[in-house]
Write a structure and sequence with these properties.
The protein is built from one helix and 13 strands; from the N terminus they run βββαββββββββββ. It is an all-beta fold and 146 residues long. The longest helix is centred in the first third of the chain and has 4 residues, at 34-37.
Length: 146
């Protein structure tokens, strides 16, 4: 029967999950159960004062692409989840994002925020979050209307 562990670094950040054949004692291994071992959201969160904690970003767009006409918009929804995958409704902080290489902050309300994007230039670029325990990235496509 395997023994499951979360591997932590010196700052408590979860950097790996292990299933070992025997019991191991280490300040860098936290015993977990099989359910936690199967929860990939646990990666890159933190273990602080005996508790797992952390914020995960999720980005979703309302459209796959928009034309480069400068009028149609694409809305990106940003949702902050806890490490267990639940929307973190208490999260009211600004979310640091980068849109096409330009950083800005978007205020969240009840763990969610959104931005709208339009462009007259065709191409692809990324929308990314920064500074959370697990950040997210989304590709945005602007289609040439010629």
């Amino acid at each position: 029967m395997p023994n499951y562990y979360a591997q932590i670094d010196s700052k408590g950040r979860i950097e790996g999950l292990s299933a070992l054949s025997g019991e191991v004692q280490s300040e860098f291994l936290v015993p977990i159960d099989e359910k936690l071992y199967g929860n990939e959201n646990l990666l890159f969160t933190r273990y602080v004062k005996g508790e797992f904690t952390g914020y995960l970003a999720e980005l979703k767009a309302d459209k796959e692409s928009i034309p480069a006409d400068g009028t149609e918009v694409l809305t990106v929804h940003i949702t902050i989840h806890d490490w267990n995958g639940e929307v973190h409704r208490d999260y009211q902080e600004p979310i640091s994002i980068e849109v096409a290489g330009i950083r800005q902050e978007v205020q969240s309300v009840n763990g969610t925020a959104e931005i709208t994007i339009s462009s007259e230039e065709p191409g692809e670029f990324k929308v990314r979050t920064f500074g959370l325990d697990r950040d997210a990235e989304l590709k945005v496509v602007i289609l040439d209307v010629k």
